[in-house]
Amino acid sequence: MEASKKFLNEEKIRELSAIQEPGKERIKDILQKADELKGLSLSESAELLAIKDSDCLQDLLKTASYVKKEIYGQRMVLFAPLYTGNHCNNNCLYCGFRRTNTTLKRVSLTMNEIKRETESLLKEGHKRLLLLSGESGHYPLKYTMDAIEAIYSVEKNGASIRRVNVEIAPMEVEEFRELKGAKIGTYTCFQETYDPVLYKKYHTSGPKANFEYRLNVMHRAMEGGIDDVGVGILFGLGDYHYELLSLMSHAADLEEKFGCGPHTVSVPRLEPAPGAPIANNVPFPVSDRDFKKIVAVIRVSMPYTGIILSTREKTELRNEVFKYGVSQVSAGSRTNPGGYSGGGENIQFSLGDHRSLEEVIGGLIDDGYIPSFCTGCYRKGRVGNDFMDLAKPGLIKQFCMPNGLVSFAEYLNDYASEETGNRGFSLIHSITDSEPSDKLRKIINTSVEKINQGQRDIYI
Ligand code: SAM
Ligand code: SF4
Known about the structure:
The protein is α/β, with parallel strands linked by helices. It folds into two domains: 69-391, Alpha-Beta Barrel (TIM Barrel), CATH 3.20.20.70; 397-452, no CATH class. Helix content is 48%, strand content 10%. It is built from 20 helices and nine strands. It has an eight-stranded parallel barrel, surrounded by five helices. β1, α6 (111-124) and β2 (128-133) form a beta-alpha-beta unit. α6 (111-124) packs across α7. The protein binds S-adenosylmethionine and iron/sulfur cluster. Iron/sulfur cluster is lined by residues 88, 90, 92, 95, 97-98, 134-135, 208.
């Protein structure tokens, strides 16, 4: 397909990936430009990715923290993945669900089982889910559409899931048009690696072996009317310089064609997985130091694109990269279908952060973040271009901060222990008191008061 050939200029990207580390003065100039919150060119991002010097890396991390704070403030959006099935026709050598892994027990949840999983997640306090599955005839589009409907239909103590994002195999434009009707939030699909030769090596059979078809999936999704798309790389499969610069070219092309780039970038790193040879012997390991650099370069280069971090990473590293740019995190996750309501051991990969949602929230409070369950933008239609138009002048803070605080107050009332409740409300009060706008302070105080009196699902 034409689109991919244009944005993936392999020769140019290879050249940029091999760029030498620039001098300190040059790094300072690039970071000064990043401070303007308008992003960077591909070659400037390449120069930042080439940083090895510790002082320059610290300067980059500092700039990324500044950009994160200016645009996203203190909020951190929380979600949980819901795996509906692990049957898969593909043979991705890094994944426990791959077709030739005979050690895995195959499971597909029925609609009732999906509702039970949803109930368990609602009991914890979740409001945003990411639905995932393998790629198989067991999961035609109708199955996914029914699953989404089943999730939205569950009500537990007056609460229900308010946003379902979807991470399933690539489809045709017409199918995306149909999926949009199920009221999904973001459609996510990771390219895994943008290197066609490595891609072929890791994806040995099944529909996913078609590199071009996957590479063009976001163009098809947006053509099919999906407003928000999420891209990602599986770090560890290829050289991270090349991967990230390719992803940025991908994002730039979507922006040029559809007036809006990806809503989110995910940064999964390869984790050990049962029956997955590549996952247990990572071809291009990414160190923690490089991982922090990667998150920071994404933050300063694509300031308005959310960064999603999963529970693949350990608690300490998660806490650190929250500062450098992450805006959405999963919490209390299971990667086995049925895992929330007591299902078996059939995991896709191992997790680094095993804390419950409440424990993750406790950690966020300690570091001064607002744990947010907000779904306001999506439900008010502030999606795609409209969201970006709001985000760019910094207005994101005016909606997301108050909505985040109010959704957090709702969580504290309904799900938190007394101790978390006290700590959470004192954070809400201190953030509200330090808000300089009288109007915004009033909106937050009035809404939190309404929540405390029993009203639910308030957002602006
Ligand atoms: N099966 C669909 C697909 O591959 O696009 C849906 C998503 S799959 C369930 C979710 C993602 O898990 C994959 O895109 C891959 O990047 C990631 N994944 C697979 N094996 C992994 C591993 N060992 N460590 C970390 N992430 C892994
Ligand atoms: Fe199947 Fe997705 Fe796992 Fe590949 S990554 S084996 S497509 S579930």
